[in-house]
Amino acid sequence: MTRPSRFAWVLLLAGLYVGVPQVFGGDLYLMSNIVAALTIGGIALSWSLLGNLGGMVSFGHAAFVGVGAYVSALAVMKLGAPVFAGMILGGIGAALASILIAPALRLRGPYFALSILAYAHIFKIIATEWKSLTNGSGGLSSIPRFPEWAGFDFGSKTGSYFIVLTLVLLFAGIYHLVRRSDYGLALRAMHDSEAATRVVGVNSLLLKALMLLLSAFMAGVMGAFNAHYINFLEPDYAFSTLWTTLPIVAAIFGGYRTIAGPLVGAMGVYLVDQLVFKSLIPSGHQVILGALLIGMILWSPGGLLPPLIRLFNRRAHAQA
Amino acid sequence: MTELILQALYSGILAGSSYALIALGLALVFGTMRIINLAHGEMVLVAAYMAYTLENAYQWNPLLAIPLAVIVACMLSVVVNFLVSRIRHDRELNSLILTFGFGIMLTNISLMLWKADIRSTRSAWLQDAISFGSLYSMKSELLFFAVSLVLVGLVAWWLRASWYGRAVRAVSSHREAARLMGINPQRTELVSFLVAGLLAGFAGVALYCNSVIQPSLGGALTVKAFIITVLAGMGSIVGVLVGALLIGIAEALTTTLASSALQDLTGMVLFLLVLFVMPNGLFGTKRHD
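YS: structure for the whole thing
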């Protein structure tokens, strides 16, 4: 595959930052769906970072999303932190929460996956029961929205779109840098043989813990973004299993071993789910997502993007 | 106070016995196929909804629904077995994602068919109180306690004495060696899935009779079953039973001493504690990787 030229990147960025708001900015319903899809995309990216680089399947990302959302909302509401600072605190909170589960990194495959599933339940219960801080299942309402800066309202639909787009692109950049770094090399080697990697002096446990930390931070920031975007939180929503399910479906659908895969997957899966499936089957429309997940694992576990790119390249070569 | 605690212990043991059925199915499948069926809790729940459907539509006693519940759970088991055996790459991790997807499907189908409402049995006989001295329970709880013990005993006997039971144990301990001895691993896996389905069918009806059901419950059941198998360690039926009773008692005590909302937290904390302190479980032998 030829690397996309710098010109293509500029074109893509211009399309995302100028084109999308220009074309769809008027349609508030569509815009809010795009923002939600990007949020899912960001979480899917953090999920696949853990899966691809760390070799760990997480069924507990809802915990990081929820913790990030609550920490940020509470930091802004109770401590008076600025909204953007709150979001970073939310990410740090989620990263700290991930340290609690780090001992489970010693466990392999299914054991880790299920430990983190069990672990995700704990935070929902804490958020529900710690009523003095979180107002329990009554939830937190009127969480401060994004501020106005230099005459531009970041609280508007288009403003929120810019924020979430920037976050997602930033995360994709970080992901890319990590993958290219020495850490990425060590992680790839670990994927082939963990024992051999340990012999040559790589602390595999520490590396995995760092990936978990980074992944949790990203998921936490996305959760925090969402809290300030919709201005309301309650435990059932903040820790909903949907924050785990949708990103997994998106990442698997797009291809979790690539960086663009989870993002493209999230746009496709979420928009089709919301705009098509939901109107066909109002209650229980996620049955299709489940079927999609099974189909992908059976027929194309690497996702749809890699085979599509191969197909595209073959065409390009044939024409050349 | 002592009386309350004794009552909690008693209720906990009764509740724990049906957890053992769910956990045993999960553990059997994990033993032979090295996969965790993340849709296991949802299968139990669908079995429970069979009892609800027959009671609601035909006024049948839920106990009469057991054959149907068992058949449906076994059929779902066969489907999971079929799907998982068709995974080509990295079965250990991909099977998790696949069964997770199957669980999502079952949850949403339940949501479509039976709505999100909370359901429980209306059978007055099953819900009648029965007492030993100062200890109370529902008749159904006592009944299913007995049923569970018998079933766990039967499975233990089956694993020890029958040809297929021994095949299951052989495949669990060394798949290749078992194959060389003339055991068909695929068929043995199917058998373990069928037994898991059978247990799930009974567990589902027990769940419906003893407590309440709703479509979103499946995930929590899977987690609970998994927690029990971790407490038990691999390859120990006594461990599964003790682990299940332990979880039941811990939950009942939390409800009595603190609040019912914290009930699930106790199990999780116990679980994380055991996982970190003794990863081989309370009764397990050391794993060889």
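YS: worth flagging: Chain B has a mean pLDDT of 88.
IM: good catch. Also Chain B has one domain: 2-115+135-277.
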